[in-house]
Amino acid sequence: MDITVYSTPTCPYCKLAKQYLSAKGFAYTEVDVSQDEAEAQKMVEVSGQMGVPVVVIDGEVIVGFDKKRIDVLTGK
Length: 76
Description:
Blueprint: E1 3-7, H1 12-23, E2 29-32, H2 37-47, E3 54-57, E4 60-63, H3 67-74
Parallel strand pairs: 1-2
Antiparallel strand pairs: 1-3, 3-4
């Protein structure tokens, strides 16, 4: 399963999303969009949003911290 979390260091919902994924035992790639303008642009292209977190699970985009959608997409 391929999981990417687009986030910023100061975003509380980003921290919650990453903690939730870790607690469920999922490895993920973290992308700090505050430090990488190209990745920030990629996040906007993928999600249509400027806000974080954006979680991408096997190509499916979740904007914000949505436990139920994470559970559906991960099967847990």
